[in-house]
């Protein structure tokens, strides 16, 4: 992956780093924890301007987030509810509760969500479904992305040849987040299966 990223930045410069980050938003398996420090390291060698890297990677983050926002907006609330109603372990009431929660905490979620692995890509979809004002979404996404990108680009810039250490340390945190999400999903599925069993027993009586 690093060879591809290096080639992209050698060909396009800082806009190449921005393109890579935009793709990372759409395809989370492309980790920004690799792209950003590598961009910073490349800037430290004088091959790209540091300010250019920060501007283009933040722009890439916003473009990728806006693409997912419009996916949610075009999909719409009714389609989301219709899809949820067909899923065996999902209740429409769960979606409605999520909507209410997002209505109360949406701004904080969009801002801080830009700094959480994986979640930063997903949060744009409900923001679109709920039709958060586009100007608000863009402003919060830009602010959160700028903070996240600056930290990692500067880390790569400062570490130089050792930029990959950033990925190693962040990888631990990412694995913890993934483990928490998996655990939450397992608990959710377990609760739903238990409720269905109780419902079957009650109907037999």
Low-confidence blocks of residues = none
Structure annotation, total helices: 9
Order of helices and strands: HHHHHHHHH
Tell me, briefly, the overall form: elongated
Rg over alpha carbons: 20 Å
Class by alpha and beta content: mainly alpha
Distance between the termini: 59 Å
> Main β-sheet, in a few words?
none
Write up this protein.
- The protein is mostly helical and 205 residues long.
- It has helices spanning 2-12, 14-26, 32-44, 50-86, 92-113, 119-122, 124-129, 134-159, 164-204.
- Helix 1 (2-12) packs across helix 2, helix 3 packs across helix 8 (134-159) and helix 4 crosses helix 8 (134-159).
- The longest helix has 41 residues, at 164-204.
- It is elongated, with a radius of gyration of 20 Å.
- It starts with a helix and ends with a helix.
- The mean pLDDT is 75.
Keyword list:
84% helix, mainly alpha, elongated, single chain
Give the helix/strand layout.
Blueprint: H1 2-12, H2 14-26, H3 32-44, H4 50-86, H5 92-113, H6 119-122, H7 124-129, H8 134-159, H9 164-204
